[in-house]
Amino acid sequence: MIVLTVALGASVATSMLSVMFDIGDKVNKELKAYGANIVVRPKGAAVVQDLYHFQGSKEQQSYLKEDELKKIKTIFWTYNITDFAPLLNTEAELNAAGAGPEKTRIVGTWFKHELNLPAQDTVVTGLANLRGWWTLQGDWPKDADPKGAVVGQGVADKQKLKVGDTFTVGSDKHRQELAVKGIVSTGGEEDNQVFTQIGVAQNLIDRPGAVGQIEVSALTTPDNELARKAAKNPNSLSISERETWYCTAYVSSIAYQIEETISDAVARPVRQVSESEGAILEKTQLLMVLTTLLSMAGSALAIANLVTANVMERARESGLLKAVGGRDVSVAGLILTEIVIIGCVGGLIGYVAGIGLAQLIGYMVFGSGISVVPAVAGIVAALVIVVVLLGSIPAIRFLLRLRPAEVLHGR
């Protein structure tokens, strides 16, 4: 029973600690499906928008360069950049066969853009990955389809458009025929917009290679005091603090490195998203730690009862050892050694079972396995020894108070 009790506690502790150490990346990946956490804008546009709090492209006078976007995947935290997409907003007159012309917001972007990186790697990035939670009727336009467009549900209703229909968008400088590949319904402003390849929007405003802003989705570490201090002013950090901040995947350090690579750009974290991610991760990890501590505390109480009962059953045997000259320390050491060996066997069984339980949790909750972290084995071993020793205290106290004459005479 002692082996089973220790194994049960160790298995719960192993599974919870394994999930806790791996849950950061997995929760981050789940949350990244709901949008970007960094927005990159031209320096001039960012200042004006911050001052006057307007959103739109009509007033925008400065732009980023589309050919610099690949630099985002060259920063120190390149593998933490999961997706990004350029956005270029403008207004154009939309003409469809089922309704009259109407001014409509056109958003040029990448849908599923294959990007060749300097290191001869290739990544596919764009709005399809960045807004994976959108409800889309139809398909995302392919990269090689310059006429493919995704129409908002509101625009489709007004213009009586359905998947496969064609329509035109035009400005004073350019006119383009497009085909509806998908209709998106988000319940937000996207329902009244038309998403096209970014080249269409660039032609409408006659600015080849222009990008209004970039949305970046990155795996980040929850902010702490150092990150909050750096977010206010990176120049206020000491040299050691700056090295720690720069080499940790805080959202502010990733944004800072993006600014270093893109010309005349301002990269700012979307605080509502990054802070929510940090809060969810901290609370989830706290829940895992509390579950681990409670399971080990329960194991300690069960071990205390089981070991005490076992020692009481063997009271005559212990009394005989004392009667023939055994000292209290020797008798207690003998019992403790026996309990620790049994606890280690139970801990080993529990660790193996806990790894299996962690994998089961990973596939049921996240659809993928949980990484086996070597540090978990050390932590669980230490917890098992502490729990076994704490659970043995009542039994040891009983042994120390045991009087050989009383137990040998059946008193």
Which regions are unreliable across 5 or more consecutive residues at pLDDT < 50? none
Structural class: alpha+beta
Q: Tell me roughly what share of residues is in helical segments.
A: 40-55%
Tally of helical segments? 13
Q: Distance between the terminal alpha carbons, to the nearest Å?
A: 28 Å
Tell me, what's the shape? elongated
Strand arrangement in the largest pleated sheet: 3-4-11-8-10-9
- Please give the radius of gyration in angstroms: 32 Å
Summarize the structure in words:
With 411 residues, this protein is of the alpha+beta class. It is 51% helix and 21% strand. The protein is built from 13 helices and 14 strands. The protein has helices at residues 2-32, 43-52, 127-130, 153-159, 198-204, 225-232, 239-246, 251-261, 271-313, 315-323, 328-365, 374-401, 404-408, and strands at 38-42, 64-65, 81-96, 99-109, 113-116, 122-125, 135-138, 148-152, 166-170, 175-185, 193-197, 210-211, 213-218, 265-269. The chain has a six-stranded mixed beta barrel with strand order 3-4-11-8-10-9. Strands 2-12 form a two-stranded antiparallel sheet. A two-stranded antiparallel ribbon has the order 5-6. α1 runs parallel beside α11 and α9 (271-313) runs parallel beside α12 (374-401).
